[in-house]
């Protein structure tokens, strides 16, 4: 049996303000909704872990159980998010009565009357000036997707490779960066920095279904997933796709990251297979969702061609313009918002070390967010400005300050300097002459009086997002 503490870490949910879960040994009728869901997840995970060939035949009846939908609702509510195509928001559901809403939804699922609605597509600006599509399912569909995810995630989690880090319980970008650093220290400094071309939009449904059927034999669960995959896209006032959809899973769907991991697990398995060309050549993979690198002492053309061939059989392709091979000791590369480079030691110029820092794009991104906030809030009090900016700063600092892995000290100093200049301009413009901070050193005053975070004095303590 796998140690229960590991299972606790893999599958813990929050049930309101009741704290961490689970409490093993509680009787079923004494458990909270979240504890009951967690208990089921542990059983599913353990069964899948013990029997690699086992297929789960009866799952659907658990999706519409009251406690499952209740936990799913709380997760959707915690994530907030905009209404979907039906215009119904989280607040609308609360005002109409959550219990009745979930009861009706559960009955639709039980009687198989549930049908997925169209996904509203919006375009999100990218750092490079382009846009990426984001799909917004209805709140109703997000609840059902979450319930399904809670049910099947532990099954596939038992099969996922250690080289996969994105959108998995108790795993993070920090863990991925730590693995990269470890391989670099082992001498695997030749890196194939891969970029999949429109991965989420090109996942073949038929091949994904094969991966799902390795573990799931309940046709009703497969039908649910099929509905979400083939849900029409609503964009620019018209519906697109629908039943004709044969590829893609909308970015923004609750279950999409899990489906993406299930499909790319095939890539992980092949690279890590002792019989593969990759493994025999000492090549390792570090993957975070659709972002991955191959690392070795040498990445030959044969390895690259093998990767292309494998992806082609999966119905995927590399973005040739963004995919590149680098010798990391001579040239830096970026991954998950970080820059990884081989730097000279400040104290001993004959020594070098692997330095992992926020990328220039990441530094610019937080500056842009600060600018956007200050431009939109021209007359907020210092207390409110500090509180709001702290939310931005804390998230950025926690992400990039990974204990034992990254070294963002210089980036912190640049961020502090930017805050000093930007806040001084903000409070010393003519329209702010009546403000108490006019004519003062605004950054220092906000830090001292209202608790604004000074990036150079902030430590995440190894917190990973």
Automatic annotation (TrEMBL):
UniProt protein name: RNA-directed DNA polymerase (Reverse transcriptase)
InterPro entries xrefs: DNA/RNA_pol_sf (IPR043502), Group_II_RT_mat (IPR030931), GrpII_Intron_Splice-Mob/Def (IPR051083), Mat_intron_G2 (IPR013597), RT_dom (IPR000477)
Pfam families, alphabetized: GIIM, RVT_1
Species this protein is from: Haliscomenobacter hydrossis (strain ATCC 27775 / DSM 1100 / LMG 10767 / O)
Keyword annotations: Nucleotidyltransferase, RNA-directed DNA polymerase, Transferase
Gene Ontology molecular function: any one: RNA-directed DNA polymerase activity
Keyword Transferase set for record: yes
Coiled-coil regions listed: none
Family: Belongs to the bacterial reverse transcriptase family.
Matching SUPFAM superfamilies: DNA/RNA polymerases (SSF56672)
Domain Reverse transcriptase: 105-340
């Amino acid at each position: 049996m796998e140690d229960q503490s590991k299972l606790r870490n893999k599958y813990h949910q929050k049930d309101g303000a009741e704290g961490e879960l689970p409490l093993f040994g509680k009787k079923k009728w004494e458990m909270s909704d979240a504890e009951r869901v967690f208990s089921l997840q542990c059983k599913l995970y353990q069964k899948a872990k013990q029997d690699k060939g086992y297929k789960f035949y009866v799952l659907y009846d658990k999706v519409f159980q009251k406690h499952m939908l209740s936990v799913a609702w709380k997760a959707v509510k915690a994530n907030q998010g905009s209404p979907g195509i039906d215009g119904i928001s989280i607040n609308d559901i609360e005002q109409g009565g959550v219990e009745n809403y979930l009861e009706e939804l559960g009955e639709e699922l039980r009687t198989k009357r549930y049908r997925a609605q169209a996904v509203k597509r919006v375009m999100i600006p990218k750092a490079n000036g382009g846009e990426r599509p984001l799909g917004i399912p209805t709140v109703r569909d997000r609840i059902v997707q979450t319930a399904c995810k809670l049910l099947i995630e532990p099954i596939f989690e038992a099969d996922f490779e250690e080289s996969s880090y994105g959108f998995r319980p108790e795993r993070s970008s920090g863990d991925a960066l730590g693995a990269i650093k470890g391989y670099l220290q082992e001498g695997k400094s030749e890196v194939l920095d891969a970029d999949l071309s429109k991965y989420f939009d090109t996942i073949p449904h038929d091949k994904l279904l094969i991966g799902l059927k390795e573990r799931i034999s309940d046709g009703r669960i497969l039908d649910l997933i099929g509905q979400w995959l083939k849900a029409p896209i609503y964009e620019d006032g018209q519906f697109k796709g629908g039943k004709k959809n044969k590829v893609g899973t909308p970015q923004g769907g609750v279950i999409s990251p899990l489906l993406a991991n299930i499909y790319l697990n095939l890539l992980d398995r092949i690279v890590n297979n002792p019989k593969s060309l990759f493994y025999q050549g000492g090549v390792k993979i570090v993957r975070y969702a659709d972002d991955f690198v191959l690392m070795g002492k040498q990445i030959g053309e044969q390895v690259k061609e093998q990767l292309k061939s494998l992806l082609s059989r999966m119905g995927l392709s590399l973005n040739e313009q963004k995919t590149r091979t680098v010798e990391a000791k001579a040239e830096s590369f970026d991954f998950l918002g970080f820059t990884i480079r081989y730097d000279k030691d400040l104290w001993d110029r004959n020594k070098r070390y692997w330095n992992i820092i926020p990328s220039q794009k990441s530094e610019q991104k937080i500056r842009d967010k600060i600018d956007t906030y200050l431009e939109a809030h021209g007359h907020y009090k210092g207390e409110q400005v500090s509180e709001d900016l702290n939310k931005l700063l804390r998230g950025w600092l926690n992400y990039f300050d990974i204990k034992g892995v990254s070294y963002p000290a210089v980036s912190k100093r640049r961020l502090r300097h930017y805050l000093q200049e930007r806040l001084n301009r903000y409070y010393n413009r003519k329209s702010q002459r009546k403000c108490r901070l006019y004519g003062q050193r605004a950054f220092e005053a906000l830090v001292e009086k209202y608790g604004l975070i000074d990036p150079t004095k902030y430590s995440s303590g190894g917190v990973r997002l």
